Automatic annotation (TrEMBL):
SUPFAM superfamilies: P-loop containing nucleoside triphosphate hydrolases. GO terms for cellular component: membrane protein complex; plasma membrane. It comes from the Bacteria. Transmembrane segments: none annotated. Keywords: ATP-binding, Nucleotide-binding, Transport. InterPro entries: AAA+_ATPase (IPR003593), ABC_transporter-like_ATP-bd (IPR003439), ABC_transporter-like_CS (IPR017871), ABC_transpr_LolD-like (IPR015854), MacB-like_ATP-bd (IPR017911), P-loop_NTPase (IPR027417). This is ATP-binding cassette domain-containing protein. The keyword Phosphoprotein does not apply. The keyword Signal does not apply. The lineage of its organism: Bacteria, Pseudomonadati, Thermodesulfobacteriota, Desulfovibrionia, Desulfovibrionales. Belongs to the ABC transporter superfamily. Macrolide exporter (TC 3.A.1.122) family. It holds the Pfam family ABC_tran. Residues 15-232 form the ABC transporter domain.
Amino acid sequence: MSNQYDIADDNALVIDINNLTKTYQTGAGGISVLKDVNLHVRRGEMVAVMGPSGSGKSTLLFILGLFQPPSTGGYKVAGVDVLSLSRDQQAIFRREMLGFVFQSCDLLENSTVYENLELPLIYAGVRRRERPDRIREALGMVNLEHRLHQPSNRLSGGERQRVSIARALVNEPEFILADEPTGQLDRENSLRVLEYFTKITEEARTAMVVVTHDNMTAEHCTRKCVLTDGYLNG
Ligand code: ADP
Ligand code: MG
């Protein structure tokens, strides 16, 4: 591998979070969102994180994706202390290892579906002539090939969510974080996405953390945790 993460072992420990806390500073002092979170995810595991609205699920996922730092605690990815990496090295981690499905989808609004999916491939240095096939394949997983050249701002909510999933998968990441990925999908499209998640978890031995409210989504996971009062149990 071109990076420093050693995940050659089929059951390698990918996510190793210990005694993690997060306090947001607000005008009225601090609010303590994560109090003592421990989470260990191996390759081939797809872990559901459930919990009421406002319990800190998105915060936890942003910390796992290195989009924001914890207040205290340790976080290793495949044995690497990622919190002590430089910004450049953290960017390499995101480009080479991670697929992230944002709750808000976060598509480039004035670009087409094709352009949205091409961006991670450009960052990863995939050659131009290889990109169309990779993009069509990723869109096929979410049944959206027919939207290839549609501008993102003309998609429905469910289509946006499926494009956002395809964009997270197009790079064949080792490690996927998905925030309510089926929240806007009907049953048929949810099942399609979940079956695909299961397939890459089993065959590509991906490590996945899926934040969800939905029982069907949680049932497709290999294990379930619940975030309550700042603690992750299960
Ligand atoms: P969930 O995804 O489970 O709904 P979040 O992680 O989005 O929960 O939010 C957890 C709590 O942290 C909420 O009370 C929210 O208002 C608060 N929060 C989230 N982001 C910030 C922020 N940037 N600054 C201050 N408070 C925040
Ligand atoms: Mg959330």
